[in-house]
Amino acid sequence: MIEFDNVSKTYQNKWPALVNVSFKVEKGEFVFITGPTGAGKTTILKLIYAEELPTTGKVIVNNKNISLIKKKELPFYRRNIGIIFQDFKLLYDRTVYENLEFVLKAIDIKGDEIREKIIRTLTRLGLAHKKDCYPYQLSGGEQQKVAIARALVKDPEIILADEPTGNIDEEASKEIINIFKEINLMGTTVIMATHHSELPQLLKKRRLHIISGRIAYD
Ligand SMILES: Nc1ncnc2c1ncn2[C@@H]1O[C@H](COP(=O)(O)OP(=O)(O)OP(=O)(O)O)[C@@H](O)[C@H]1O
Ligand SMILES: [Mg+2]
User: Fold this and answer.
1) Would you list the DSSP string of 78-99?
2) Residue 13 scores a pLDDT above 80
3) Which of 144, 169, 185, 188 is the 20 to 30 Å CA partner of 82?
4) Protein residues with CB under 6 Å of any ligand 1 atom
């Protein structure tokens, strides 16, 4: 369902962030992307989300070459992808509830279903009591959970999680990892970039290890 075919990515024609990267991820897989800072983990996720395009090579998602997606088709393409950005990218002038509502309205979900989906997702993450708070009224870990809730609320086929446990304590991390495990068991493909190199082994999951933009092992 996701295929990188000899992908290289060079930002602003300078330093190559990815070099000849090829791999495939099947529907329903749970894959960790590990590697040191600057290795290219976030770049891989941005390519899948079509936020960046490869400099050479092909990124194919659900049989679509992302380089051929027209700008106006991007929202439709992204409907099925939930992404948790490393820096959250929450809407800071909207409440937690409104941040999630924004996502659902953008994909034409209406009325009671909006409320039901939001409350269900916030409850699952233990955030229901914060629904009327603005992001700046939340701790870093709570903001991270909002970012996760926002990715999950639309029940996507693919979840891209960039360091989703970067700002939370060990207990909360376990809780978050368990939620991703559950979602994966329901059939969602999960791709998670992390510095926590022990996680793949702990969860007995596939690991793509990236060093300086190349796959060191798969
Ligand atoms: N928008 C950008 N413009 C220019 N260079 C960039 C950009 N984004 C990333 N890079 C460069 O590409 C390389 C890979 O970055 P990337 O963010 O993918 O690494 P990462 O593995 O996610 O790192 P980290 O663990 O710190 O999050 C780095 O050298 C980085 O400086
Ligand atoms: Mg990163």
Assistant:
1) HTTEEEE-TT----TTS-HHHH
2) no
3) 169
4) 11-12, 15, 17, 35, 37-43, 86
| Ligand 2 ion: nearby residues, β-carbon < 5 Å | 41-42, 86
Q: How far is the CA of 110 from the centre of ligand 2 (A)?
A: 34
pLDDT (tens digit per residue) in 123-152: 999 999 999 999 999 998 899 999 999 999
Residue 87 has pLDDT above 90, yes or no: no
Ligand nearest to the CA of 197: 1
Q: How far is the CA of 45 from the centre of ligand 2 (A)?
A: 9
**pLDDT > 90: what percent of the chain?**
81
Q: Strands 16-25, 2-10: parallel, antiparallel or unpaired by DSSP?
A: antiparallel
> Structural domain boundaries of the chain?
1-80+158-218, 90-155
Give the nearest ligand 1 atom to 46 CA.
18
- Of 10, 42, 44, 197, best ligand 1 pocket probe by most atoms within 8 Å of the beta carbon: 42
What is the CA angle 123-128-130, rounded to 5?
150
Quick one: fold of 1-80+158-218?
A: Rossmann fold (3.40.50)
